[in-house]
Amino acid sequence: MEMKKIFLTCVVLALGLVACDDSTSANGSSGDENPAEESSSSVIPSEVEGSSSSVTSSSSVESSSSVVSSSSEKSSSSVASSSSVKSGSSVADKANWAYLNPSIDYGEFTDARDGQVYKTIEICDKENKNCQTWMAQNLNYAYTGVAFDNGYYTSDSISWCYDDDPSNCATYGRLYTWAAAVDSVAIYKNYGEECGYGKSCTRFSASALATAPVRGVCPSGWHLPSNAEWGALYTNVGGASYAGQKLKANTSLWTSYSGVTNDDSFGFSVLPAGGRNYYGYFYGQGDYADFWSSTDYEYSSSYAWYQSFHYNNGYAEQDYYGNYGKNNAFSVRCLKD
Q: For residues 92-118, b (16+ Cβ closer than 10 Å) or e, as one string?
């Protein structure tokens, strides 16, 4: 965590502080400073939903909590890069599934918006109660065609593939600003409309989210988890102090570190997707995984709560701090309603 904060602080000092505005207007500029960035053509999400079927798990995991595969549902058509160019969902599916826990019997869910298939997992506490059904992979839905301009860097999208490389979307999913994660342009619901950097919205307070979750960029029937729901996941797997070890994928994609072993015993399979800062630079792939929550930080409209997993420790951290403001782009995991 300290390495990331120091790095991004140095970037800010070098380039000078700028006024950041998480613009979510579809009428904003679509010009990119980086020629490798995505095209300005848009993807219009569809609200078509699918049917569901039940998948029963027969697997068990050695741990104090329970893991059960989730029910599958129908739902999407994948855009694998930062542009609106579509890729076959089967390619992305197979690239991602290779890093799941082979001893877990997963459920499946198909996102009706683009046809992508996600593995799902139900994780309960040690008494097989307080269960949650999560996607076992990062969301890879292309929330594009919306101008992003923070006063320094302009792009035609508020979600990206790491390094603008479609193969990274296939493996790690997409990276979203907080405004995109909460659906700030109200494509699906108006809960997050015009919320983002510099704007506090009571709909995203901890108390409001406790009674009514927000769908955000997730498919219908799923939602962007709150900070409290992430905390409940950590409790189910034995506490935040062990959550990194229990939830990170057992793969060489993670930078190795002496004394740290990722056993992925619950099949949650966190991959080191890295992130994208508000100057348009990608960083941290192999070292970090950060996930947005739907919870606004109550003391500053610049920040929202996120979850952080590092290569060099075995715990999970809940944070909101400093340079990791809402204009940065992190991964998204969806939780079933």
A: bbebbbebbbeebbbbbbbbbbbbbbb
Residue with tokens 């826990």: 101
Beta strands in 111-250 (DSSP E): 113-114, 117-124, 132-135, 144-149, 154-157, 159-160, 175-176, 222-223
Strand 107-110 vs strand 117-124: parallel, antiparallel, or unpaired? Answer: antiparallel
**Is pLDDT of 59 > 80?**
no
Q: Residue 5 pLDDT more than 60?
A: no
Distance CA 81, CA 285 (A): 16
- In sequence order, the 6+-apart residues with CB closer than 8 A to the CB of 67 are 57, 59, 60, 61, 104, 121, 122, 123, 124, 265, 266, 267
Q: Which two tokens stand for residue 168?
A: 């990274």
Q: Helical H runs in 165-260?
A: 166-172, 178-181, 206-211, 227-236, 240-247
For 123-143, the pLDDT digits (tens) are 999 999 999 999 999 999 998
Residue found by looking up tokens 């082979």 in the block: 102
Q: What is the DSSP letter of 196?
A: B
The helix (H) or strand (E) run that includes residue 67 is strand 66-68
Q: How far apart are CA 101 and CA 95, in angstroms?
A: 14
- Which segments of the chain does DSSP mark as H helices, in order? 2-15, 89-97, 166-172, 178-181, 206-211, 227-236, 240-247
The residues facing 288 across adjacent strands are 310
Measured distance CA(310)–CA(290) in Å, rounded = 9
Domains of the chain, by residue range, sit at 2-8+29-336
Residue 94 pLDDT = 61
Under 8 Å between Cβ of 38 and 144: yes
In angstroms, the CA 298 to CA 306 distance is 13
What pTM, to 2 d.p., does this model score? Answer: 0.74
pLDDT for the residue numbered 97: 83
Cα 300 from chain centre: 22
More confident residue, 66 or 320: 320
